[in-house]
Amino acid sequence: MSGSAVVLVSGGLDSATALAVARAEGYACHALSFDYGQRHRRELDSARRVASALGSREHLILRLDFRAIGGSALTGDLPVPKGRSEAAIGAGIPATYVPARNTIFLAHALAWAEVLGAQDIVIGVNALDYSGYPDCRPEYIEAFERMANLATRAGVEGTSRFTIHAPLIRLTKADIVRRGRDLGVDFALTWSCYEPEPDGRACGCCDSCLLRKKGFAEAGLEDPLPTAR
Amino acid sequence: MSGSAVVLVSGGLDSATALAVARAEGYACHALSFDYGQRHRRELDSARRVASALGSREHLILRLDFRAIGGSALTGDLPVPKGRSEAAIGAGIPATYVPARNTIFLAHALAWAEVLGAQDIVIGVNALDYSGYPDCRPEYIEAFERMANLATRAGVEGTSRFTIHAPLIRLTKADIVRRGRDLGVDFALTWSCYEPEPDGRACGCCDSCLLRKKGFAEAGLEDPLPTAR
After folding, report:
1. Exposed site from A79, A133, B64, B150, fewest CB < 10 Å?
2. ipTM, 2 dp
3. Does residue B176 belong to the interface with chain A, where contact is any CB pair within 8 Å?
4. Coil, strand, or helix at residue A45?
């Protein structure tokens, strides 16, 4: 594979690994992140460091008005769940779900890809050890790809075709940690916590911290990032 | 029909008519517009007046970073074509195409609909007298609807289903003008021109002005909006 790809980079370990996979496959990577009124700025700082450390050609950060739309713990409307069991995390859609977030992210990635002349878009979603978000499932990614090819100049003129790559979609969190390690991802640069402690450390008990802990534990690796508990 | 609907309102005559159709069908309408660095502010002023005059429950204007993505005459990267023939307008995708614009608009509408508990989204695209945009075709709207129902809580939990309504999609511009008139749309409030004259009047020769003129002429009606030529 080759050519240019737009890679969604959140600053978390999944998207860092997805970026590393795309680089290893030879893509010239254009990293795309969003400033959507996240509860903390740490996420975007991590996105910048990850994009740079993994050799992105450029890094575009777009502002989005998610707070005006509301409806999620991640934009401040609801409390972030803490200390949930693995079963509870796997069951149902949590308060941290941001309505249509990946659709909005991928729509912007599609626009940028069309402007860049890139045919490939990379997103680090995974459908196994995930938080129950509907827009992380393979059938969703396939439906987006189909729609994307009808939405654009490329699809009408038949000169090219967009592919949405979700290289982690069928991996466990442990697989992702191992894959990232093998590709040289520095996990100390990444950030997963939804609601850090006042001292800046990851809380260690939100769904995202718990999934990250599980991934490192099952991979038999140490997380270089300190957590509060 | 009934319930709440999110209606995309650009300030143009198509979306004004689509809003009037949704109101006539009994929907409680939540108007949604975007501030995406359009060349002129007039469009958003018209959107506000149209949303209010046609009885929207509320009107949300979200900011988008289209300028950072680039690639369109409508965000200032390319010149707006003027004085083109009807055949030229119908052939190919023009410089005023904004990459993935309707996908980005509909993605936000989907997010807001999910937060509001609305199952219906209304967009005033039309596939006949249009500017050759790929994201105005029926097959695109159908693919978006399918994707939307996989992207969201509603689709996973099976409690509800989103419908994307494009009530004008198979109408000519003349049909739209007649339909709007019959439903009491005040076309003086709407705005179509891509690049107004320095004195503030519509230019009368960009693709959007030309399609509007053709619509009024074929409907045998007078456009209440003055144009420069």
Report:
1. A79
2. 0.91
3. no
4. helix
